[in-house]
Amino acid sequence: MRRPTEEPAWLRWLLCLLAVAVLGVFLVLPLAAVFAEAFRRGVAPALAALGDPDALAAIRLTLLVAAIAVPVNLVGGVAAAWAIAKFDFPGRRLLTTLIELPFSVSPVISGLVYVLVFGAQGWLGPWLEERGIQVVFALPGLVLATIFVTFPFVARTVIPLMQEQGRTEEEAAATLGAGGWRMAWHVTLPNIRWALLSGVLLCNARAMGEFGAVSVVSGHVRGETNTMPLHIEILYNEYQFVAAFAVAGLLALLALLTLAAKSLLERA
Amino acid sequence: MRRRDALPGLGLALGVTWLWLGLIVLVPLAALAIRPWELGLAGVWASVTEPRVLASLRLSFGAALVAALVDLPLGLLVAWVVVRYRFPGRRVLDAAIDLPFALPTAVAGLALTALYAPNGWLGAPLAALGVKVAFTPLGVAVALAFVGLPFIVRMVEPVLRDLGPEAEEAAATLGATRWQAWRLVVLPALGPALVAGVGLAFARAVGEYGSVIFIAGNRPMESEIAPLLIVARLEQYDYAGAAALGLALLLLSFALLLVFGAMQRRLRRGLP
Amino acid sequence: MAVPLGRRALPGLALGLAGPAAAQGAGALLNVSYDPTREFYRAYNTAFAAHWREKSGQAVRLSTSHGGSGRQARAVIDGLAADVVTLALAYDIDAIAERGLIARDWQRRLPENSAPYTSTILFLVRRGNPKGIKDWGDLIRPGVGVVTPNPKTSGGARWNYLAAWAWAQRHAGGDQGAAQFLGRLLRNVPVLDAGARGATTSFAQRAQGDVLLAWENEAHLAFAEFGQGQFEIVVPSLSILAEPPVAVVDRNVDRRGTRAVAEAYLEHLYSAEAQALAAKHFYRPRDRAALAAAGATFPDLPLVTVDAEFGGWAEAQRTHFADGGSFDRLYQPGR
After folding, report:
1. Any idea where this protein resides (chain A) (predicted)?
2. What ipTM does this complex have?
3. Which domains are assigned to chain B?
């Protein structure tokens, strides 16, 4: 006999099928479309597109940008989580809200604000120009815009967990005479490492895939300031649809690997 | 005076946090907040109340709201199935939920356009039924629903997991039917998380650019989203106008986030 | 305030030196151009690099950036270190000159209004021309889908708009008739893409609309790219003479010491070699010999000019495309 808190079997199966259908049509089909377009003329042209020097430069630049942006957000996110989750201080609610803010800022605006500050017509433009420093339309601009867009990911995943864990373990360590760094290393970090890793993975995936914000601050120079998403746009605009979707497929593949790694982490 | 804290590091952590927040987010946003006023108060007002701007704001907020509301039952369904049922492929399903987070927005935009264009896999059968998706406001809503879905699932999932079946068992012993238990016990408990999820999905959708721009028709007054107008203004060298619209968009979505936050707190207060 | 600003600039400095900005300098040249010139400048860069090596003995590394003409001009204004700009319309270069990056008299520095090649606006229709589109007047018939990009963001779209306006002024009763004509035409547009390339893709790849208003060279390119026989080019009874201009960005080349090579890059566009190359990529060469050699590729049709018809680009921009201009009014509610 079935338990009173269980739905009848037919309903359970129906709901499961519905959920699978929703995700299939909504999420998996677009992904399938990417790969179908990439391999429309076979595997060789798709691979050739990835070996193109401009594509390689875009891949390198994307990895470099992510490699700078993610650690910055990791450090900032953990510091914010420590303060918000373990302490009570004036302005705590405000700080939490401000950290979430970049989520609700349009990517276009996140690019625009850096142009307003660092562009030649912006606040610091003339000062930077005198010294020959290029921020927008060069690597620093791409990095800044990427940090902005991926800003809350790490903090968001870690804060709830640290709040739930409370501060008893750390207080015990403090009573036993552990210093701040030792406590962080031996008590706090092991407790949050899986959440931290999954936050970093999401942050990284988004950092590699951002389009709107970097599009505003990139000079779109082939082989120089094109990240992978921008390179996809260029290829698409050159009617090289197979190549565009091949690079898109590679990005999607990276996203899938990220999700697989995250799913494994959560099981562990 | 405040009691001296047993735990170290508040000063350092706060310092790092405010530095990070200030340099990356607050100073640049201040530039956005200051720039429009070179138009004067009346100029700013005129520039954000143009009919074309109002139409684009209506579309951006309307489509985002529709998308978030469509995502609500879908996200709830997916979260329920993933948490409560065991079936083959559940893990894959669970991992796939984050796809819109991880999939680059431009890729999503191109893929959705290819799917829903009148000659696409889904667009062709829909066109036969007389439904046009790509290049219409409906297409905008579809893209935004794609972007927003994981927010709802990921907000609801942990709450559902914590809730466990005990409360429902109690309801059942008291003679409630399955549907009553679900409606009177489960749904209210999920309320705050659902509202939070809708709020996040909505806020994200309002400003979305990369995945929408390919599938929207970009016709003024009809299928033109607000972020596109910001870009259009920039391209006419109208920095102040672009910043004015950006600021308006930001303030509106921030106000809505506050409303959602208040709703969440009210719902939570009603909980046992 | 001074402290955070200083701190902020330091990582910028370190990154800037390691980043792409440092890769330029003497021996490298950045050409910031508009959308449909990709194929032409890729070929021209190869030709010019060889020419420059022969002439000066130096190797030069040429990079290009492409996008909507307005976006590209804005990037240069905001600090993209372009040595030369090759854009869709004089208005965009004027905008850069207004901010002091280019001398005001730039258009007189090179022959032919600083436009080494020209183009015009034609129609691209589907095979067999099922809707029987022959001229501008056919575009406002009910049931005809017209694909054109958004004039607010695309230089090509502004040429489309002005060409339609010029025809309507003659055939639909002056300015007022033209405004009505454009209003009806725009109601037939199913998708207003942000750029010329996006519009071509919507028409050719996404099966939108029955006719694409396109640059002559885009029409030919789409014709070649998307399979011969899928499309046909229709030449209307009247169109517009598009003069995409080029200029050296004075401030940037003086700072980077690239003036000699930048000027040579633009001057060489007028050489017989480059003119033949332009014709090959379906730009109308200024050189008569190259034009004659291209033969029937470039049909002869009456072309109006922006200067004669609309009083120059600054005036055309103000009347038609600026906020509150004729384009905006056509989309006002209640019409």
Report:
1. Cell membrane
2. 0.83
3. 41-267 (1.10.3720.10)
